[in-house]
Amino acid sequence: MQTTKQTALVTGASSGLGAEFARLLAARGCDLILVARRAAKLEELAVGLKSAHSIKVEIITHDLGQPHAADALWAKVVQGGRPVDILINNAGIGLAGEFTGIDAKATEATLELDVVALTMLCRHALPPMLERKQGRILNVASLTGMQGGGPGMAVYYAAKSYVLSFTRGLARELRGSGVTATVLCPGTTRTEFDTVSGAGKLRLFRWLPLADARKVAESGLNAMFAGRAVHVPGLLNKVLAVAGELPPRSISVEVNRFLLRS
Ligand SMILES: NC(=O)c1ccc[n+]([C@@H]2O[C@H](COP(=O)([O-])OP(=O)(O)OC[C@H]3O[C@@H](n4cnc5c(N)ncnc54)[C@H](OP(=O)(O)O)[C@@H]3O)[C@@H](O)[C@H]2O)c1
To answer: Does residue 232's CB lie within 6 angstroms of at least one atom of ligand 1?
Structure first.
């Protein structure tokens, strides 16, 4: 599939992996629709990419943590009149802490963003892709999605397990259609995530090496363009992925309980 003159929608493009996806897709000649809540960050990125690559960049300031956020976003995308050829469902948050210690509304917003918005954006993007018999979807899960559970970040681990399972199933449904779905499962990566989530103080982030966001995004895009269903970047992460999925899964729950402490 040619990427030149195609349009890619990237959620969570204002920092971290999302900004790197945007830069890499711009370098491949894609027009971009960049989505996040921080308008100034998106604007700054858009200005740089437009002048460096002679591409069109639209920014949409949107909170995907609200109910029906994907429907509202898609209405804006349709209004813009450009078909989405590549959907990068990257925006995501996770909150560190015991389940009952985290504000209930914050948990609800996490699920709206990590699970509902991601799913519904696929639901909106797919029919026109299937009609054109071409399209790429990259859903960003996490190595956490391959674990038995995450005591201390239970909702985040479960949400990423959902993204992994959903995308695996979707990828199989799409086989032969010309459209592909890929799930990227990064390990700990240097972005704003550790600060926003509060996970930076945990052993997980203090002890494990942090991958470079550009490299992770690049390997994710390569897997997406190759039409792979699941991609775990990095050798150590591949080992941790296998370890997390091995029975009995209660072992990985205990390991994670240890790693998700300060
Ligand atoms: N960093 C890691 O160690 C790691 C590991 C595995 C997986 N991941 C996954 O990678 C993805 C990208 O995260 P990152 O590491 O790049 O973290 P990040 O630097 O914190 O980026 C998160 C992005 O999501 C956006 N976002 C957050 N809440 C949003 C909302 N309610 N509506 C719209 N956009 C929202 C943020 O933009 P605004 O704040 O401007 O809205 C930001 O652009 C996430 O899905 C995360 O779970 C990260």
So the answer is: no
